[in-house]
Design a protein that fits this description.
Layout (H helix, E strand, L loop, with lengths): L5 E4 L6 E4 L2 H8 L9 E3 L4 E7 L4 E9 L2 H15 L12 H7 L3
Antiparallel strand pairs: 1-2, 1-3, 3-4, 4-5
Helix pairs in contact: 2-3
InterPro entries: DUF4144
Pfam family, one: DUF4144
């Protein structure tokens, strides 16, 4: 079960995409050209690969789970890429808290 909201981590890109729910995932990603290495990360740190067929997007669980420290690093890299905030003081106590930080 996917715990929304999530972030989309595109391979080779530090910027993240906030995904509120499954409908937003379909709307935001339906027309994207996705890579095999792209991952959806849910609010509990579970990661999912994305299979893009001609008719739908399918999320498949992977064996990789990230923790709060790894989520903090992803958010820091995202914010650094956007040059928005001072990333040095940015740390989160949970994956869910890190994901919510990029909602806006």
């Amino acid at each position: 079960m996917i715990h929304w909201p999530c972030i989309l981590k595109l391979a080779g890109d530090d910027e993240l995409i906030f995904i509120k729910n499954h409908d937003a995932f379909i709307a935001d990603c339906g027309d994207m050209i996705l890579q095999n290495e792209d991952r959806l990360i849910d609010s509990q740190g579970n990661t999912y690969s994305i299979e893009n067929t001609t008719s739908s997007l399918t999320l498949r669980p992977t064996d990789v789970k990230i923790d709060a420290a790894q989520a903090s690093t992803l958010i820091q890299e995202h914010e650094f890429a956007n040059a928005q905030v001072c990333i040095i003081k940015m740390h989160f106590t949970s994956v869910a808290q890190a994901i919510k930080a990029i909602e806006n």
